What we know:
The structure is a homodimer. By secondary structure, chain A is mainly α. Chain A has a single domain (about 10-190), classed as Tetracycline Repressor, domain 2, CATH 1.10.357.10. Chain A contains nine helices and no strands. In chain A, helix 1 packs across helix 4 (about 50-75) and helix 5 (about 80-95) runs parallel beside helix 8 (about 155-170). The longest helix of chain A is centred in the middle third of the chain and has 27 residues, at about 120-145. Chains A and B meet through helix 6, helix 7, helix 8 and helix 9 of A and helix 6, helix 7, helix 8 and helix 9 of B.
Amino acid sequence: xxxxxxxxxxxxxxxxxxxxxxxxxxxxxxxxxxxxxxxxxxxxxxxxxxxxxxxxxxxxxxxxxxxxxxxxxxxxxxxxxxxxxxxxxxxxxxxxxxxxxxxxxxxxxxxxxxxxxxxxxxxxxxxxxxxxxxxxxxxxxxxxxxxxxxxxxxxxxxxxxxxxxxxxxxxxxxxxxxxxxxxxxxxxxxxxxxxxxxxxx
Amino acid sequence: xxxxxxxxxxxxxxxxxxxxxxxxxxxxxxxxxxxxxxxxxxxxxxxxxxxxxxxxxxxxxxxxxxxxxxxxxxxxxxxxxxxxxxxxxxxxxxxxxxxxxxxxxxxxxxxxxxxxxxxxxxxxxxxxxxxxxxxxxxxxxxxxxxxxxxxxxxxxxxxxxxxxxxxxxxxxxxxxxxxxxxxxxxxxxxxxxxxxxxxxx
DNA sequence: TCGTTATTTGAACGAGCGTCCAAGAACGCG
DNA sequence: CGCGTTCTTGGACGCTCGTTCAAATAACGA
Lengths: 201, 201
């Protein structure tokens, strides 16, 4: 059987996620990852391949985790509309405030790495698409239940919210507590208000 | 007095902007800048200081240029509402399509560098704030002229559009022609319609 | 107990990084 | 024509990068 592993790969990935998230791909060195994960580089290379492969594994794990979180957030509250609102609020709070200037790893990666690495690009792009695909049915349901105005096309609104959330995470990186993020969040929440309902059927 | 400079600093900055824009700060080496600008490193160091200072100068120039462009785009068309629409369309087209996956230098920098460099952060943050400050009066005027619904708060809408545009430039980096960007753009345009917007698609 | 096998360890490697600087080259002026 | 001044040129420096690998280590079955 040989000598047993002294670390859990997923736990290492969680640590690596933290580093890539707060510092970025290029700015994190393998030495940094060594100290950050507590695993010496030889073992990192044996377990994951190289720096890029470790990053890809971290990114995929982060994407999976965030996909799960989306479902949780959307199912919060009494109805689909409350879930949407909750999702937006959490995402908004997540990128304002002290220590919250690292944004979202997917957005950071889209900006820094995606154009130069097809595999990375695919992971990030699919994540964004999945997010939109998760938001859209919630919007449709909310509209069907008369909780959300039908003024807006559900598909477009879903895409809009995806783009908006990524924008918040980017703009939020320029200030510990960004007024722009807060205002845009308030605006987005106002979009979800059922202010001009036609006769519900 | 002395040997004359063989290059124009602003022209060099324009070249440097291109490189930082398409490749990112950390991924561009001083050697790359040497070949990209056509100026040997010794002269670059003499003229600008070091890599970070050159980046900062490029970033400030980019920010200035984009502030000018905003005013131009907003004044396009017959009225403030047409200017806003034009601005959104141009920004949307600018980050979809082949060869358009480099987004916006300000957004890229917000994601990659801003959290780790206060001076950079200030430049980017102020740029975003200026953009919002340029959009808001256009929105107010459009509302006063009855061209744009008063349903939305002008200040919040301005912030919303800033964040949205940054989001488009980030999401657009994951695909040459992003359906998400196109949809969110269509949605944003529908927000600018005066009364009950039709459900396009 | 010993041999097998898988993992850990950290020294070592070449390449490339950002930066510096001494020498040469091109001007204006006396 | 020198002379002073400024900019250019490209080699060199020290360092850190990502990566490799042989030796040391630890668990297993026999």
